[in-house]
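User: Fold both of these, please.

Assistant: Here is the first one.
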Amino acid sequence: METAELTFTSTRMPKLIGGAPCLDFANTADWHASENPLERLTTYTGLVYWSWHAGILSPVTAQRLLAKAAKRPREAEAALDRAVRLRDALYRIFRALAHEEGVDEEELSVLNAVLGEAMARLRVVRQGDEFTWEWEGMEGSHEAMLWPLARSAAELLTSEDHHRLGQCADERGCGWLFLDMSKNHSRRWCDMEDCGNRAKAMRHYRRERGIPLG
């Protein structure tokens, strides 16, 4: 498989605006807070492409996982199912924290199951005079992209930054999650150029017509 086969248009991928890989992963369903979320992770290939887009997988690892998936499609499909379960659990965990609600233990169990497998794969390796973390066997597992995502989620949950979680206030139900690093924790939109401008336009429309802003 040639590298060119992995070329894609980045605009077709969800924007990486969450502030942490686990939040960007949670945002891989559009309109998540609406009654009809739009699923973006519909194929294993799409999961690999997104993981490359997000910097979770290197091009070489992505190529090899796609080649492996072509030979073992059932295992790849099972990995996709698990990825979506993890994504949905992370979304519910972080959404609850963003709204200062309780976190369901079952959602944490989903995360911890992947996290336990992930940490068993983590190694300290030497790179010249320095040491760094490395994942062992990423090219051999269809679920390799889930390991760094589970670690990212665990690091966010155990840091003070989990108090800065926010969710897009778009009235149509965008639902995207983000780290609110503004000084007064005043960020309301996932993206000012997108949901923020749409909300401003809607407020203007209501003011012009005397409709209560709510």
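And the second sequence with its predicted structure:
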Amino acid sequence: MRSILLLCIIFSSCTPVKFIPLKNSYADKPFEQTVDKSKDQVWENIIDFFAKNGLSIRLIDRTSGLIISDKTALKWTYEKKDGSLEFPLAWAAVPKVINTGNNMPYKFLTVNGDWNIRIKESSGGTLININLVNINCYASAYTLASNSPSAITVAGVKSTGNFEKLIFDNI
């Protein structure tokens, strides 16, 4: 009897959620741009950009032209009803999540990811490839069954292209 009661409590505390997908279309592939600077100039500018903005680097391999950031807290935003960004300078767009148990939105706790940057020489300059990977988005809401937060992982977070534009502007 106790095990049945325990199962009922556990399952009643599970919060049904509704994900509201992003309306705008965001790039599903890495951002690429060729610049007319040498590979060495681009390399130094990107390293300086990371240092000036307090972004730590997990892996740096100059011979292969690869820079991978540590897990980075992302500046994120929701979309408005028309699909535009609430915070236009955000680095990531996050789908809204509704707790269908009480029709309240989830509160996002953290949104983070890794930046992979590949720099290589190409005809006409230096090719830069920037990709946001390993995105983790965690949200929480209070459930009706208990007075404690229920945490979920949110999928569908997309790069807005703003971080990538910052890097290209600083090269």
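Residues 130 and 164 are 7 Å apart (CA to CA).
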